[in-house]
Amino acid sequence: MSRDGAGPALAAAVLDQMAEAVVAVDAEGRVLVANPALFRLLGVDPDSARGRRYPEILRHAGAVELLGAVLAGGRPLAREVRLFAPEELIFDAHAAPLAEKGRPAGAVLVLHDITRMRRLEQMRRDFVANVSHELRTPLASIKGFTETLLAGAVKDRENRVGFLRTIEEQADRLTQLVDDLLDLSAIESGHRPPRLAPTDLEAALEEAAAAFARAAAERGVRLERRPSEGLPPALADRDQLRQVLANLLDNAIKYTEPGGRVELSAERWESGLRVSVQDTGVGIPEAGLPRVFERFYRADKARSREAGGTGLGLAIVKHLVEAQGGAVSVESRRPGGSTFRFTLPAAAA
Question: Is 186 helix (H, G, I), strand (E, B) or coil?
């Protein structure tokens, strides 16, 4: 094959393999060529695209305006555009004029998907804002009570012990928040990979129930264990499993009114095992169910802070369970209580 013949074939091959969506149009705005990535993005039939005007193919105002501006002005342009195909996608769009023998011959548009990058940036901004908000409340309380003591209340024997206890409680809350943040960071970054080994799930549940028996009794909540016989060992990290159970039981007890009940159980599920933590507590609004495992999400913000939560416990649960090859879910009615479930693989026989 000659060098001249290889050029168009090579260019077509490169265009076909590009992850970016590309479309080239002539000076009249008719499609000359477009790559498979564009067709996948817009759901356009490749055979019917050639020769059609670009607004019929692109069908998104931002991309159409950008390509039209380059055709009219004859100079390269770049901007961020948002397409809905069907969900919102964000693209770094670059358009440049095409010339043939020094005369305008059309334009080419390249769309580079930056949706994930923008969402990660937004998540980072939200995370910083949430952490700042969570830190501000206990810090303001510590500062306020400290200033009160320094202003003379330290001589008030009747109230100073109460002030100091409040300072201690808020310092404990800060410590818990920092510990949870460090935990979550280590889990997400892969610095705490699970050490999977055959684990007696029934024994782990018994241990967790015993550890929270006192907290449940002090709250006036009945903590029940529903045993299951003949369960195979789970393939799990015992320490991480202990942390998952602790977070779920702590939440269930805190959000169950005195006189209510929390039940802990396990069962065979598909090819593995499933653990359930069911309570008769306040429940979660239906709109909040898809978000309960997000960092800092609280269905009831005022009640959560009163209960002393950091808003990170369920996010930690999700990451730990998924790292062990399982999945988490929640069902809830308001009122009526909630049931949190997670699965784990069974250890090989």
Answer: helix
Task: Supply φ then ψ for residue 256, to 5 degrees.
Answer: -110, 130
Shared domain for 95 and 14, answered yes or no, is: yes
Do 57 and 39 form a contact (C-beta atoms < 8 A)? no
Same domain, 40 and 78: yes
Q: Domain check: are 148 and 225 in the same one? A: no
**Contact present, 291 and 311 (Cβ < 8 Å):** no
Tens-place pLDDT, residues 213-228: 999 999 999 999 988 8
Contact 83, 59 (CB under 8 A): no
Q: Does 327 have pLDDT greater than 90?
A: yes
Per the structure, the complete domain to which residue 164 belongs is given by 116-191
Cβ-count burial 24-51 (b if 16+ within 10 Å, e if not): bbbeebbbbebbebbbebbebeeeebee
Q: What is the C-alpha to C-alpha distance for residues 314 and 320, in angstroms, rounded to an integer?
A: 10
Say yes or no: 263 and 226 in one domain: yes
Residue with tokens 């067709």: 39
Residue 246 sits in the same domain as residue 319 = yes
Give the SS3 label for residue 148: helix
Judge whether 198 and 347 are in contact, CB under 8 Å.
Answer: yes
Asked if 267 and 273 count as a contact pair (C-beta separation under 8 A), the reply is yes
Question: Any idea what the CATH number is for the domain that residue 106 is in?
Answer: 3.30.450.20
Indicate whether 197 and 319 sit together in one domain.
yes
Please, are residues 338 and 283 in contact by the beta-carbon 8 Å criterion? Answer: yes
Within this chain, do residues 337 and 220 fall inside the same structural domain, yes or no? yes
- pLDDT (tens digit, 9 = 90+) per residue, 244-260? 999 999 999 999 999 99
